[in-house]
Design a protein that fits this description.
The complex is a heterodimer of chains A (440) and B (262). By secondary structure, chain A is α+β, with helices and mostly antiparallel strands. Chain A has one domain: Cytochrome-c3 Hydrogenase, chain B. Chain A is built from 14 helices and 14 strands. Chain A is globular, with a radius of gyration of 22 Å. Chain B has a 5-stranded parallel beta sheet, with helices on both faces. Chain B starts with 7 loop residues before the first strand and ends with a helix. The chains are: A alpha+beta (440), B alpha/beta (262). At the A-B interface, α1, α4, α5 and α6 of A face α1, α2, α5 and α9 of B.
Amino acid sequence: MTTSPTGPSALPLRTVKVENLSRVEGEGGLYARVENGVVREVKLDIFEPPRFFEAFLRGRHFQEVPDITARICGICPVAYQMSSVHALEAAMGVTITPEIRALRRLLYCGEWIESHALHIYLLQAPDFLGYDSAIAMAADHPKEVEQGLRLKKIGNDLLELLGGRATHPVSVCVGGFYKAPRRAELLKLKPDLEWGLEASLATVKLVAGLKFPDFAPDYEFVSVSHPDEYPMNERRIVSSAGVDIEPAEFERVSLEEHVEHSTALHSKRADTGRSYFVGPLARINLNLEKLFPRAKEAAKTCGIRWPSRNPFQGIVARAVELVHAYEEAITLVDAYQQPALSRVEIKVRAGEGCAATEAPRGVLYHRYRVNNQGLVEFARIVPPTAQNYRRMEDDLRLYLPGILDRSEPEIARACEDLIRNYDPCISCSTHFLKLKLDRE
Amino acid sequence: MASDARPKLAVHKFSSCDGCQLALLSLEDELLSLVGEVEVAYFLEASSATAAGPYDVVLVEGSITTPHDAERIKAVRKDAKYLITIGACATAGGIQALRNWADVEEFARFVYPTPAFIHTLKESTPISSHVAVDFELSGCPINKVQLLEVITSLLQGRAPHLPPHAVCMECKRRGTVCVTVAQGIPCLGPLTLAGCGAICPAYNRGCYGCFGPMENPNPDSLTNHLQRAGASPGELVRLLRGFTGYAEAFRSASEKLEKTAP
């Protein structure tokens, strides 16, 4: 780092600028200004063009909502479908059957598998192993990349069977599914799911052995919580700082803020103004004991101490959840009997309802108001990545002072690696930060 | 990756959900052989390494919704030998084109506490409204097998084999009983380009048109039939204004319905 006098006293001023984040979903960049080793300003520039989903959902029929909200994210469409159907069912007082509930969890397992395998192997592993992409990594580590691709493919196969296609599945509706699969169809997937369980256990070993930077901020972790299940579809929201609320109280506790450098809203705690952390690391830290047995065993024997406050160990949390999702999927397939009715009847009535489910990247909150014609009057959607933005900025603020002695490309790379821990979904948010350092 | 004799592939994103470029990464069985045939030169979602243009094949996802993107697409075109749009957003404007029938400033006020921070165009438009496009691949999302066919055909120097007919034909091939005839469910299958495999009727629901209109569809015939079967004009306007609602055939059909029965 070079410095030069800029006023009465010499102020070593550095600007860190990353034009385009890579290996993240969607488009964003990063800017930071450092003076005398003190980080003065950090901004995640989110320039993903706004699409106004909450505005054009107004006037649509409630049954169109899960199809439309799926399009918020091509990587986690099921999460958007799940939060919207649960919220709309709450609005109209619809109770689903245990069979439909189980099938929804199975569908969600498919998405967690596809999304987690994508992030672990194709988006984040190159950071730890020093490659620009999984494609480049495949030249030296073909077995691992092929394992990752197959783990991902099985998730997609499950989504295709239950939903017709992996991206924007067509089977989900308010009240259940347009069609439920036959037991024989699901059983055909079992050998692959069993392979996936073993391969995901191997994945935990692989990623737990990576070298993690020494970094552990004082996070408030937030996740959905259920008394007997690892959180996925329902229902309360809890935090490591003692929050324990119904989804209806979410907007009182979490506040969305609009900042000039972003087309995404940024969330913070309404009372303390502090950032918080959602995603696999938050889920494991808050729900370790509710993991399925082999996932729990893998978590406890992999050498990571939980709760972990090291965001770089998010890759291990994601791998443990990959085990869980495969394990739970096998259990659900074994128990599955095709229900007589794939969807419950809905009596349209005016009402308002909300729900939070666990998208692969964390808590996803939806609230809707419908009229007596079943048309949407109001919609609010709070995606996980929007909740993490402020936390990412806080992380950069804490992380930067420790790495300022490095070269410009190294600083950029380190900042980008830090952001990728969050698996940001910028369209709702992939892999590249271009660094610009201005030295004065 | 070092420059070599392989054709250079670039992927660019505009206003979209990422689901169509994800189709490349979802070619799990073919991905590693595909990257043996083409150099992935610019694909931010998959790689931090970028090589400068010009590129032989450029895949464009997303629609144009901001003044900045209206300029960026021109630069993308300049660097592209073949520009192929992938998906409903790039080909028809996407679901975000619902703003084209509304007041986008009201939309911004509804969604954002400080609408002044938001810079957006009044309309969401397909890539072809801004620059010349060499090939349009439909779908919300695209079918990854069709994407592979388009890339393969380019590498082989032939025209891609993609079905030109309606979704109805795919239902017949699959043996799906017509949901409109048998159950009275409104379905856009007779107007919609095949390619998805007619999954919606196979899952016991009507097609919602995500592959956009086929060539020379007859929307009047379908909307008249569905109205006789009991569908309201409002319901049909919503059905036509989905993920490809701004494509000409669907757009004119929904506007006509709106005029005749407000």
